[in-house]
Amino acid sequence: MALTGLDIFKLLPKTNCKKCGMPTCLAFAMQLAQKRAKLDDCPSASEEAKEALSAAAAPPMRLVKFGIGDKMVQVGKETVLFRHEEKFYNPTAVAVSISDKLSGDALQKRIESINALQFERVGLKIGARAIAVINDSGEVEAFASTAVAVKKSSNLALILCSDMPESIAAALAKTAEAKPLIASANADTFEAMAKIAKENNCPLVAKAKSIDDLADLTEKIKSQGLEDIVLSFEGLTLADQLRDFTKMRVLSLKKVFRPLGDPTLSVVQEGDSDQQTAAATSLICKYCGIVIVDTIEPYAFLPMLTAAMNIYSDPQKPIQVEPKLYEIGEPDENSPVMFTTNFSLTYYTVESDVEAARVPAYILVVDTEGTSVLTAYSGDKLNEKVVADAMAKNDIRNKVKHQKLIIPGYVAVMSGKLEEALGWEVMVGPRESSTLPKYLQEVWK
Ligand code: SF4
Q1: Residues with Cβ within 6 A of ligand 1?
Q2: What local confidence, expressed as pLDDT, does residue 400 receive?
Protein backbone atom coordinates (compact mmCIF):
# COMPACT_ATOMS: atom_id res chain seq x y z
CA MET A 1 0.00 0.00 0.00
CA ALA A 2 1.35 3.43 -0.86
CA LEU A 3 2.73 5.30 2.13
CA THR A 4 1.12 8.62 3.06
CA GLY A 5 3.14 11.75 3.80
CA LEU A 6 2.62 11.19 7.55
CA ASP A 7 3.76 7.55 7.29
CA ILE A 8 6.94 8.74 5.61
CA PHE A 9 7.42 11.57 8.10
CA LYS A 10 7.50 9.04 10.96
CA LEU A 11 10.49 7.37 9.26
CA LEU A 12 12.50 10.59 8.82
CA PRO A 13 15.05 12.00 11.37
CA LYS A 14 12.78 14.99 12.23
CA THR A 15 15.76 17.35 12.72
CA ASN A 16 14.53 19.88 10.14
CA CYS A 17 18.15 20.38 9.07
CA LYS A 18 17.07 21.57 5.58
CA LYS A 19 19.85 19.66 3.80
CA CYS A 20 17.23 18.16 1.46
CA GLY A 21 16.27 21.63 0.30
CA MET A 22 12.96 21.58 2.20
CA PRO A 23 12.26 23.77 5.26
CA THR A 24 11.10 20.81 7.37
CA CYS A 25 11.12 17.02 7.43
CA LEU A 26 7.35 17.11 7.09
CA ALA A 27 7.52 19.17 3.92
CA PHE A 28 10.07 16.72 2.51
CA ALA A 29 7.81 13.77 3.46
CA MET A 30 4.92 15.37 1.58
CA GLN A 31 7.11 15.78 -1.50
CA LEU A 32 8.21 12.15 -1.25
CA ALA A 33 4.62 10.93 -0.98
CA GLN A 34 3.80 12.77 -4.21
CA LYS A 35 6.93 11.31 -5.83
CA ARG A 36 8.37 14.80 -6.34
CA ALA A 37 11.52 14.04 -4.34
CA LYS A 38 13.91 11.13 -3.75
CA LEU A 39 14.84 9.78 -0.36
CA ASP A 40 18.49 10.04 -1.42
CA ASP A 41 18.13 13.82 -1.02
CA CYS A 42 18.05 13.34 2.75
CA PRO A 43 21.60 12.46 3.83
CA SER A 44 20.41 11.43 7.30
CA ALA A 45 17.77 8.88 6.20
CA SER A 46 18.02 5.63 8.14
CA GLU A 47 18.32 2.17 6.58
CA GLU A 48 14.89 1.39 8.00
CA ALA A 49 13.40 4.34 6.11
CA LYS A 50 15.14 3.30 2.88
CA GLU A 51 13.87 -0.26 3.17
CA ALA A 52 10.29 0.79 3.93
CA LEU A 53 10.17 3.29 1.08
CA SER A 54 11.65 0.99 -1.53
CA ALA A 55 9.20 -1.76 -0.52
CA ALA A 56 6.30 0.69 -0.81
CA ALA A 57 7.48 1.80 -4.25
CA ALA A 58 7.55 -1.77 -5.65
CA PRO A 59 4.58 -2.73 -7.88
CA PRO A 60 1.89 -4.71 -6.04
CA MET A 61 2.28 -7.60 -8.48
CA ARG A 62 5.68 -8.71 -9.65
CA LEU A 63 6.60 -9.13 -13.31
CA VAL A 64 7.96 -12.61 -14.04
CA LYS A 65 9.79 -13.52 -17.26
CA PHE A 66 10.87 -16.84 -18.70
CA GLY A 67 12.07 -18.00 -22.10
CA ILE A 68 14.46 -15.96 -24.22
CA GLY A 69 14.57 -13.69 -27.26
CA ASP A 70 11.39 -12.72 -29.02
CA LYS A 71 9.62 -15.74 -27.50
CA MET A 72 10.20 -14.56 -23.95
CA VAL A 73 7.02 -14.72 -21.88
CA GLN A 74 6.17 -11.93 -19.43
CA VAL A 75 3.37 -12.35 -16.92
CA GLY A 76 2.15 -10.36 -13.95
CA LYS A 77 2.64 -6.70 -13.07
CA GLU A 78 -1.09 -6.13 -13.37
CA THR A 79 -2.50 -3.10 -11.62
CA VAL A 80 -6.30 -3.38 -11.72
CA LEU A 81 -9.07 -5.86 -11.00
CA PHE A 82 -11.18 -4.89 -13.99
CA ARG A 83 -9.86 -3.94 -17.41
CA HIS A 84 -12.17 -0.91 -17.75
CA GLU A 85 -10.41 0.67 -14.75
CA GLU A 86 -7.23 1.01 -16.83
CA LYS A 87 -6.14 -2.03 -18.85
CA PHE A 88 -4.54 -5.43 -18.35
CA TYR A 89 -0.91 -5.46 -19.39
CA ASN A 90 0.62 -8.90 -19.86
CA PRO A 91 -1.67 -11.36 -21.68
CA THR A 92 -2.14 -14.86 -20.31
CA ALA A 93 0.38 -17.22 -21.89
CA VAL A 94 -1.31 -20.38 -23.15
CA ALA A 95 1.12 -23.31 -23.01
CA VAL A 96 0.71 -26.91 -24.17
CA SER A 97 1.87 -29.98 -22.29
CA ILE A 98 4.13 -32.75 -23.55
CA SER A 99 4.45 -35.92 -21.51
CA ASP A 100 7.95 -37.32 -21.02
CA LYS A 101 6.44 -40.73 -21.78
CA LEU A 102 6.44 -39.70 -25.46
CA SER A 103 9.49 -40.45 -27.55
CA GLY A 104 10.67 -40.80 -31.13
CA ASP A 105 8.23 -39.85 -33.89
CA ALA A 106 5.30 -39.35 -31.51
CA LEU A 107 7.27 -36.77 -29.52
CA GLN A 108 8.49 -34.98 -32.62
CA LYS A 109 5.02 -34.92 -34.11
CA ARG A 110 3.54 -33.36 -30.98
CA ILE A 111 6.24 -30.69 -30.84
CA GLU A 112 5.57 -29.81 -34.48
CA SER A 113 1.81 -29.69 -33.85
CA ILE A 114 2.34 -27.27 -30.97
CA ASN A 115 4.74 -25.11 -33.01
CA ALA A 116 2.01 -24.87 -35.65
CA LEU A 117 -0.55 -23.43 -33.20
CA GLN A 118 -0.06 -19.91 -34.50
CA PHE A 119 -2.82 -17.74 -35.94
CA GLU A 120 -3.49 -14.30 -37.31
CA ARG A 121 -6.55 -12.49 -36.04
CA VAL A 122 -7.56 -8.94 -36.98
CA GLY A 123 -4.04 -8.38 -38.22
CA LEU A 124 -2.33 -9.53 -35.00
CA LYS A 125 -0.33 -12.70 -34.52
CA ILE A 126 -1.38 -14.94 -31.62
CA GLY A 127 -0.45 -18.49 -30.70
CA ALA A 128 0.90 -21.03 -28.20
CA ARG A 129 3.65 -19.35 -26.21
CA ALA A 130 5.23 -22.15 -24.23
CA ILE A 131 5.66 -25.92 -24.06
CA ALA A 132 5.34 -27.60 -20.67
CA VAL A 133 7.28 -30.85 -20.33
CA ILE A 134 5.54 -33.07 -17.77
CA ASN A 135 7.49 -35.64 -15.76
CA ASP A 136 4.73 -38.29 -16.07
CA SER A 137 7.30 -41.10 -16.18
CA GLY A 138 8.74 -40.21 -12.80
CA GLU A 139 12.14 -40.89 -14.35
CA VAL A 140 14.94 -38.36 -14.27
CA GLU A 141 16.56 -39.26 -17.58
CA ALA A 142 13.32 -39.48 -19.57
CA PHE A 143 12.35 -36.01 -18.34
CA ALA A 144 15.72 -34.49 -19.16
CA SER A 145 15.86 -36.00 -22.66
CA THR A 146 12.30 -34.85 -23.46
CA ALA A 147 13.16 -31.33 -22.31
CA VAL A 148 16.24 -31.38 -24.55
CA ALA A 149 14.19 -32.60 -27.54
CA VAL A 150 11.64 -29.80 -27.01
CA LYS A 151 14.34 -27.16 -26.70
CA LYS A 152 15.97 -28.44 -29.89
CA SER A 153 12.79 -28.48 -31.99
CA SER A 154 10.88 -25.46 -30.70
CA ASN A 155 11.75 -21.87 -29.94
CA LEU A 156 8.71 -21.48 -27.68
CA ALA A 157 9.40 -20.83 -24.02
CA LEU A 158 9.92 -23.92 -21.88
CA ILE A 159 8.18 -24.95 -18.65
CA LEU A 160 9.70 -27.86 -16.72
CA CYS A 161 7.01 -29.64 -14.68
CA SER A 162 8.15 -32.09 -12.04
CA ASP A 163 7.79 -32.42 -8.27
CA MET A 164 11.23 -34.07 -8.14
CA PRO A 165 14.15 -31.65 -7.67
CA GLU A 166 16.51 -34.22 -9.21
CA SER A 167 14.45 -34.30 -12.43
CA ILE A 168 14.42 -30.49 -12.62
CA ALA A 169 18.18 -30.36 -11.99
CA ALA A 170 18.89 -32.93 -14.70
CA ALA A 171 16.73 -31.12 -17.26
CA LEU A 172 18.17 -27.73 -16.37
CA ALA A 173 21.70 -29.04 -16.78
CA LYS A 174 20.93 -29.18 -20.52
CA THR A 175 18.34 -26.43 -20.99
CA ALA A 176 19.15 -23.65 -18.49
CA GLU A 177 20.21 -21.21 -21.23
CA ALA A 178 16.58 -21.26 -22.44
CA LYS A 179 15.61 -19.83 -19.02
CA PRO A 180 12.69 -22.21 -18.38
CA LEU A 181 9.98 -21.73 -15.79
CA ILE A 182 10.35 -24.40 -13.09
CA ALA A 183 7.12 -26.00 -11.88
CA SER A 184 6.76 -26.66 -9.03
CA ALA A 185 7.97 -26.33 -5.46
CA ASN A 186 5.78 -27.42 -2.57
CA ALA A 187 6.16 -27.35 1.20
CA ASP A 188 8.43 -30.40 1.09
CA THR A 189 10.67 -29.44 -1.82
CA PHE A 190 10.91 -25.65 -1.69
CA GLU A 191 14.45 -25.53 -0.31
CA ALA A 192 15.92 -27.79 -3.01
CA MET A 193 13.81 -26.24 -5.77
CA ALA A 194 14.61 -22.65 -4.75
CA LYS A 195 18.32 -23.50 -4.69
CA ILE A 196 18.16 -24.98 -8.22
CA ALA A 197 16.09 -22.04 -9.50
CA LYS A 198 18.44 -19.50 -7.99
CA GLU A 199 21.56 -21.21 -9.33
CA ASN A 200 20.08 -21.26 -12.82
CA ASN A 201 18.45 -17.83 -12.67
CA CYS A 202 15.00 -19.27 -13.44
CA PRO A 203 11.59 -18.37 -11.97
CA LEU A 204 9.86 -20.96 -9.80
CA VAL A 205 6.22 -21.99 -9.40
CA ALA A 206 5.04 -22.34 -5.80
CA LYS A 207 2.23 -24.87 -5.41
CA ALA A 208 -0.07 -25.35 -2.40
CA LYS A 209 -3.59 -26.43 -1.52
CA SER A 210 -4.88 -23.13 -0.13
CA ILE A 211 -4.25 -19.40 -0.18
CA ASP A 212 -2.83 -19.49 3.35
CA ASP A 213 -0.43 -22.30 2.51
CA LEU A 214 0.61 -20.51 -0.67
CA ALA A 215 1.35 -17.26 1.17
CA ASP A 216 3.38 -19.22 3.70
CA LEU A 217 5.28 -21.04 0.94
CA THR A 218 6.18 -17.90 -1.03
CA GLU A 219 7.62 -16.30 2.10
CA LYS A 220 9.77 -19.39 2.68
CA ILE A 221 10.96 -19.36 -0.94
CA LYS A 222 11.78 -15.66 -0.75
CA SER A 223 13.75 -16.30 2.42
CA GLN A 224 15.95 -18.55 0.24
CA GLY A 225 16.77 -15.51 -1.87
CA LEU A 226 14.48 -16.18 -4.83
CA GLU A 227 12.05 -13.42 -5.85
CA ASP A 228 10.64 -14.56 -9.22
CA ILE A 229 7.71 -16.73 -8.19
CA VAL A 230 4.52 -17.91 -9.90
CA LEU A 231 1.56 -19.07 -7.81
CA SER A 232 -0.39 -22.28 -8.41
CA PHE A 233 -2.84 -24.52 -6.59
CA GLU A 234 -2.91 -28.29 -6.33
CA GLY A 235 -6.04 -30.36 -5.91
CA LEU A 236 -8.53 -27.51 -6.35
CA THR A 237 -11.57 -27.69 -8.64
CA LEU A 238 -11.91 -25.14 -11.42
CA ALA A 239 -14.55 -23.26 -9.40
CA ASP A 240 -12.31 -23.14 -6.33
CA GLN A 241 -9.35 -21.95 -8.40
CA LEU A 242 -11.41 -19.16 -9.93
CA ARG A 243 -12.58 -18.10 -6.48
CA ASP A 244 -9.11 -18.18 -4.98
CA PHE A 245 -7.33 -16.55 -7.93
CA THR A 246 -9.84 -13.71 -7.58
CA LYS A 247 -9.24 -13.43 -3.83
CA MET A 248 -5.49 -13.38 -4.44
CA ARG A 249 -5.83 -10.64 -7.02
CA VAL A 250 -7.79 -8.53 -4.54
CA LEU A 251 -5.29 -9.21 -1.78
CA SER A 252 -2.29 -8.36 -3.93
CA LEU A 253 -3.68 -5.25 -5.63
CA LYS A 254 -6.01 -3.74 -3.06
CA LYS A 255 -4.23 -4.76 0.14
CA VAL A 256 -0.72 -4.91 -1.38
CA PHE A 257 -0.23 -8.26 0.34
CA ARG A 258 3.28 -9.08 -0.91
CA PRO A 259 3.27 -12.86 -0.28
CA LEU A 260 0.58 -13.16 -2.98
CA GLY A 261 1.83 -10.40 -5.28
CA ASP A 262 2.92 -12.74 -8.07
CA PRO A 263 1.38 -13.98 -11.32
CA THR A 264 -0.52 -17.28 -11.37
CA LEU A 265 -0.49 -20.59 -13.24
CA SER A 266 -3.05 -23.34 -13.74
CA VAL A 267 -2.87 -26.72 -15.45
CA VAL A 268 -5.91 -27.85 -17.45
CA GLN A 269 -5.45 -31.50 -18.43
CA GLU A 270 -8.90 -32.95 -17.74
CA GLY A 271 -11.75 -33.36 -20.20
CA ASP A 272 -11.98 -33.23 -23.96
CA SER A 273 -10.84 -30.31 -26.09
CA ASP A 274 -14.12 -28.41 -25.68
CA GLN A 275 -14.04 -28.75 -21.92
CA GLN A 276 -10.42 -27.60 -21.84
CA THR A 277 -11.35 -24.55 -23.91
CA ALA A 278 -14.13 -23.66 -21.45
CA ALA A 279 -11.90 -24.17 -18.41
CA ALA A 280 -8.89 -22.35 -19.86
CA THR A 281 -10.98 -19.41 -21.04
CA SER A 282 -12.52 -19.05 -17.57
CA LEU A 283 -9.05 -19.05 -16.04
CA ILE A 284 -7.83 -16.47 -18.54
CA CYS A 285 -10.71 -14.22 -17.46
CA LYS A 286 -10.05 -14.69 -13.71
CA TYR A 287 -6.94 -14.09 -13.36
CA CYS A 288 -4.52 -16.69 -14.57
CA GLY A 289 -1.17 -15.58 -16.01
CA ILE A 290 -0.20 -18.96 -17.50
CA VAL A 291 -2.55 -21.79 -18.50
CA ILE A 292 -1.15 -25.18 -19.53
CA VAL A 293 -3.57 -27.20 -21.66
CA ASP A 294 -3.27 -30.64 -23.20
CA THR A 295 -5.29 -30.12 -26.38
CA ILE A 296 -3.55 -29.35 -29.66
CA GLU A 297 -6.75 -28.94 -31.65
CA PRO A 298 -6.59 -25.60 -33.47
CA TYR A 299 -10.39 -25.16 -33.19
CA ALA A 300 -10.13 -25.49 -29.41
CA PHE A 301 -7.02 -23.37 -29.11
CA LEU A 302 -8.10 -20.32 -31.06
CA PRO A 303 -10.98 -19.35 -28.70
CA MET A 304 -8.58 -19.33 -25.73
CA LEU A 305 -6.18 -17.06 -27.57
CA THR A 306 -9.02 -14.85 -28.76
CA ALA A 307 -10.25 -14.47 -25.19
CA ALA A 308 -6.78 -13.49 -23.97
CA MET A 309 -6.31 -11.11 -26.86
CA ASN A 310 -9.63 -9.39 -26.26
CA ILE A 311 -9.31 -9.14 -22.49
CA TYR A 312 -5.80 -7.77 -22.67
CA SER A 313 -6.54 -5.21 -25.37
CA ASP A 314 -6.75 -1.61 -24.19
CA PRO A 315 -10.45 -0.78 -23.66
CA GLN A 316 -9.68 2.90 -24.38
CA LYS A 317 -8.07 2.10 -27.74
CA PRO A 318 -9.90 -0.09 -30.24
CA ILE A 319 -7.63 -2.31 -32.31
CA GLN A 320 -7.05 -0.40 -35.52
CA VAL A 321 -5.71 -0.94 -39.02
CA GLU A 322 -3.76 1.68 -40.89
CA PRO A 323 -6.03 4.10 -42.75
CA LYS A 324 -5.07 3.75 -46.42
CA LEU A 325 -6.17 2.19 -49.69
CA TYR A 326 -6.07 -1.61 -49.63
CA GLU A 327 -5.98 -3.63 -52.83
CA ILE A 328 -7.79 -6.95 -52.76
CA GLY A 329 -6.59 -9.20 -55.54
CA GLU A 330 -5.24 -7.23 -58.49
CA PRO A 331 -7.73 -4.42 -59.04
CA ASP A 332 -7.62 -2.26 -62.18
CA GLU A 333 -9.33 0.89 -63.44
CA ASN A 334 -12.68 -0.91 -63.70
CA SER A 335 -12.62 -2.41 -60.20
CA PRO A 336 -15.12 -1.40 -57.51
CA VAL A 337 -14.11 1.07 -54.81
CA MET A 338 -15.71 0.90 -51.39
CA PHE A 339 -14.90 2.40 -48.04
CA THR A 340 -15.03 1.26 -44.46
CA THR A 341 -13.58 2.40 -41.14
CA ASN A 342 -10.25 1.57 -39.52
CA PHE A 343 -11.80 -0.50 -36.71
CA SER A 344 -9.85 -3.75 -37.15
CA LEU A 345 -12.75 -6.10 -36.74
CA THR A 346 -14.78 -4.19 -39.32
CA TYR A 347 -11.95 -4.02 -41.84
CA TYR A 348 -10.98 -7.69 -41.63
CA THR A 349 -14.61 -8.77 -41.90
CA VAL A 350 -15.07 -6.67 -45.04
CA GLU A 351 -11.73 -7.78 -46.44
CA SER A 352 -12.50 -11.49 -46.06
CA ASP A 353 -15.95 -11.04 -47.62
CA VAL A 354 -14.50 -9.15 -50.59
CA GLU A 355 -11.89 -11.88 -51.02
CA ALA A 356 -14.68 -14.46 -50.94
CA ALA A 357 -16.42 -12.59 -53.79
CA ARG A 358 -13.36 -13.15 -56.00
CA VAL A 359 -13.85 -9.69 -57.42
CA PRO A 360 -10.64 -7.61 -57.35
CA ALA A 361 -11.45 -4.40 -55.49
CA TYR A 362 -10.18 -1.35 -53.67
CA ILE A 363 -11.10 -0.90 -50.01
CA LEU A 364 -10.52 2.62 -48.77
CA VAL A 365 -10.03 2.59 -45.01
CA VAL A 366 -10.84 5.95 -43.50
CA ASP A 367 -9.55 7.06 -40.12
CA THR A 368 -12.37 7.01 -37.59
CA GLU A 369 -10.07 6.48 -34.58
CA GLY A 370 -10.79 2.77 -34.62
CA THR A 371 -14.56 2.99 -34.32
CA SER A 372 -17.08 0.98 -36.33
CA VAL A 373 -19.21 2.44 -39.11
CA LEU A 374 -22.32 3.35 -37.11
CA THR A 375 -20.39 4.51 -34.05
CA ALA A 376 -18.16 6.69 -36.23
CA TYR A 377 -21.12 8.17 -38.09
CA SER A 378 -23.07 8.94 -34.91
CA GLY A 379 -19.96 10.59 -33.39
CA ASP A 380 -19.34 12.61 -36.57
CA LYS A 381 -16.03 10.85 -37.12
CA LEU A 382 -17.38 9.58 -40.42
CA ASN A 383 -18.86 12.20 -42.74
CA GLU A 384 -18.57 13.31 -46.38
CA LYS A 385 -15.50 15.44 -45.64
CA VAL A 386 -13.60 12.57 -43.99
CA VAL A 387 -14.33 10.31 -46.97
CA ALA A 388 -13.52 12.99 -49.55
CA ASP A 389 -10.21 13.75 -47.82
CA ALA A 390 -9.30 10.06 -47.73
CA MET A 391 -10.20 9.71 -51.43
CA ALA A 392 -7.98 12.65 -52.32
CA LYS A 393 -5.11 11.53 -50.09
CA ASN A 394 -5.09 8.10 -51.72
CA ASP A 395 -5.44 9.49 -55.25
CA ILE A 396 -8.42 7.31 -56.05
CA ARG A 397 -9.57 9.44 -58.97
CA ASN A 398 -6.48 8.38 -60.89
CA LYS A 399 -6.85 4.71 -60.06
CA VAL A 400 -10.28 4.06 -61.59
CA LYS A 401 -12.22 5.55 -64.45
CA HIS A 402 -15.81 4.78 -63.39
CA GLN A 403 -16.40 7.36 -60.58
CA LYS A 404 -18.61 5.10 -58.50
CA LEU A 405 -18.21 4.62 -54.75
CA ILE A 406 -19.85 1.80 -52.78
CA ILE A 407 -20.71 2.84 -49.22
CA PRO A 408 -21.78 0.71 -46.24
CA GLY A 409 -25.54 0.17 -46.16
CA TYR A 410 -25.70 1.39 -42.56
CA VAL A 411 -24.75 4.90 -43.66
CA ALA A 412 -27.02 5.14 -46.70
CA VAL A 413 -28.08 8.48 -45.25
CA MET A 414 -24.69 9.89 -46.30
CA SER A 415 -25.42 9.32 -50.01
CA GLY A 416 -26.66 12.78 -50.94
CA LYS A 417 -23.93 14.79 -49.22
CA LEU A 418 -21.26 12.39 -50.46
CA GLU A 419 -22.40 12.73 -54.06
CA GLU A 420 -22.25 16.50 -53.69
CA ALA A 421 -18.81 16.43 -52.09
CA LEU A 422 -17.29 13.95 -54.53
CA GLY A 423 -19.23 14.46 -57.73
CA TRP A 424 -19.31 10.66 -57.96
CA GLU A 425 -22.22 8.24 -58.12
CA VAL A 426 -22.74 6.73 -54.68
CA MET A 427 -23.94 3.14 -54.58
CA VAL A 428 -25.40 1.93 -51.30
CA GLY A 429 -23.87 -1.43 -50.43
CA PRO A 430 -25.30 -4.06 -48.14
CA ARG A 431 -25.73 -3.47 -44.41
CA GLU A 432 -24.11 -6.77 -43.56
CA SER A 433 -20.67 -7.44 -44.95
CA SER A 434 -21.53 -11.13 -45.35
CA THR A 435 -23.73 -10.24 -48.36
CA LEU A 436 -20.93 -8.32 -50.08
CA PRO A 437 -19.96 -11.27 -52.33
CA LYS A 438 -23.49 -11.44 -53.75
CA TYR A 439 -23.59 -7.66 -54.11
CA LEU A 440 -20.28 -7.47 -55.94
CA GLN A 441 -21.11 -10.34 -58.22
CA GLU A 442 -24.67 -9.29 -59.04
CA VAL A 443 -25.22 -5.57 -58.40
CA TRP A 444 -21.78 -4.16 -59.16
CA LYS A 445 -21.54 -6.00 -62.46
FE1 SF4 B 1 14.64 16.30 7.47
FE2 SF4 B 1 16.40 14.88 6.08
FE3 SF4 B 1 15.41 17.13 5.07
FE4 SF4 B 1 17.09 17.24 7.10
S5 SF4 B 1 17.52 16.48 5.08
S6 SF4 B 1 15.16 18.36 6.85
S7 SF4 B 1 16.52 15.42 8.22
S8 SF4 B 1 14.28 15.28 5.58
Answers
A1: 12-13, 15-20, 22, 25, 28, 42, 44
A2: 96
